[in-house]
Design a protein that fits this description.
The protein is about 40% helix and about 15% strand. With about 375 residues, it is α/β, with parallel strands linked by helices. Helix 2 (about 50-55) links the parallel strand 2 and strand 3. It has helices spanning about 10-25, 50-55, 70-90, 105-115, 135-145, 155-160, 175-185, 190-200, 220-235, 250-265, 275-285, 295-300, 330-340, 345-350, 360-370, and strands spanning about 1-10, 30-35, 60-65, 95-100, 120-125, 150, 170, 205-210, 240-245, 270, 290, 305-310, 325.
């Protein structure tokens, strides 16, 4: 019997990890516990733990970091609390391995605690680049602490090896989000059901808008947010569905700007701290295009053959489908992109879009590898590439 913990800190990573968690829960050879932390436990960020509870996992452990402020010092405090609280969580139990995903600061703290306690780590979505965010160094740091790696593309698998990880421990399994969409295709809500669930009213054109702080340059990124709002204000008969920015440096100023934007036209602009995965994917299946700088615009939206206008540098360096167009955070460039994605040529390209992150049986392959791969020694030799 293997003791395995999955750590989740945000609505985004839980949406990706949900399938893995369900497979672990159903396996009678695994003792599974889900550790919930970060913005899941923050009312300001939607208290998304309520969505996790509805999935009825038997063993859930809460690690509250008391997320309140959004300064750099606040983030340092959250990392420190994460290390301290996860140290106690791990010491009170005997885990064979923990599973983490991505690049969040609360996940970094949990990974540091596990590393010093010699608990093996399995890392999902390593090797990726987001050059406009601190996520980059966090992600690569977690890679160096991890013993197993599950990459969403072949290019990312190679980058993990370039970071010195042995090829035998690095697997190209595909992106969990892309697989989740395929699994949910027949369960998505109709347009009428979405309107009833979310209390919105679709217009002639409908878009999804998600814009997070660029943690390496939050002030300029705020300027970019205002440019997007100015561009979207020029659109007529358009419904704008907005999801909340991440709990990062600059969150409060972003939140205030977005709320003011919504209040200017509350009958055609709607804000959600969190929609839940079913509502979110159902919205993606019923909109005309997506704008912002969320990773979802690159990892998930292409599966719906919907255009993504990726604004700024936050996702710079990530593998992207032909449906994704990057622009600088300037009103004029954003409006030009909006016009371009509505041309016949771009729509023809959309119809042929293939999501580069999709690979069949992603969650199953990850769970089987973690279940059967024995990690006898936490010491890892650095794998040198011969140039």
């Amino acid at each position: 019997m293997k003791n395995i913990a999955v750590i989740t800190g945000t609505r985004a990573d839980y949406g990706l990890l949900r399938g893995v968690c369900k497979l672990l829960e159903e396996d009678n050879q695994i003792n599974f516990i889900l550790a919930v932390t970060g913005s899941h436990l923050s009312e300001r960020h939607g208290n998304t733990f309520e969505e996790i509870k509805s999935d009825n996992f038997k063993n859930i452990y809460l690690v509250d970091l008391n997320i309140e402020g959004d300064s750099c010092s606040n983030i340092n405090s959250y990392v420190a609390r994460s290390i301290e609280k996860f140290d106690k969580f791990f010491l009170d139990r005997h885990f064979d391995i923990i599973i983490v995903l991505g690049d969040r600061y609360e996940i970094l703290g949990a990974s540091i605690a596990a590393s010093f306690l010699n608990i093996p780590i399995a890392h999902i979505h390593g090797g990726e680049l987001t050059e406009g965010a601190q996520d980059d160094f966090i992600r690569h740091t977690i890679t160096k602490m991890s013993s197993l790696h599950f990459a969403s593309t072949e290019a990312y698998r190679k980058r993990i090896i370039q970071l010195g990880e042995h090829p035998d421990t690095v697997f190209f399994t595909g992106g969990l989000g892309a697989e989740n969409i395929v699994n949910m295709k027949g369960k998505l809500l109709s347009r009428m059901q979405i309107q009833e669930h979310l209390g919105i009213e679709f217009r002639k054109t409908n878009i999804l808008f998600t814009y997070h702080p660029e943690t390496l340059d939050p002030e300029n990124c705020l300027s970019g947010l205002k440019e997007i709002c100015l561009a979207l204000s020029d659109l007529e008969n358009t419904g704008i569905i907005i999801t909340s920015p991440n709990a990062d440096v600059g969150f409060e100023s972003f939140f205030k700007t977005i709320k003011n934007f919504v209040n200017e036209a509350p009958k055609s602009r709607w804000f959600f701290a969190s929609m839940g995965q079913l509502n979110y994917f159902s919205v993606l299946d019923n909109i005309d295009w997506v704008i912002g700088n969320s990773s979802s615009g690159l990892l998930e939206v292409p599966s719906f053959k919907v255009a993504t206008i990726d604004v700024g540098n936050r996702q710079k360096g990530r593998v992207r489908a032909d449906s994704v167009m990057n622009v600088r955070p300037l009103k004029s460039e954003i409006l030009n992109a909006i016009n371009k994605i509505q041309t016949r040529a771009f729509k023809d390209k959309l119809s042929k879009t293939i999501n580069p992150y999709y690979k069949a049986n992603t969650a199953k392959k990850i769970v089987e590898c973690i279940k059967y791969k024995n990690i006898e020694n936490r010491q890892k030799p650095f794998f040198d590439i011969v140039f």
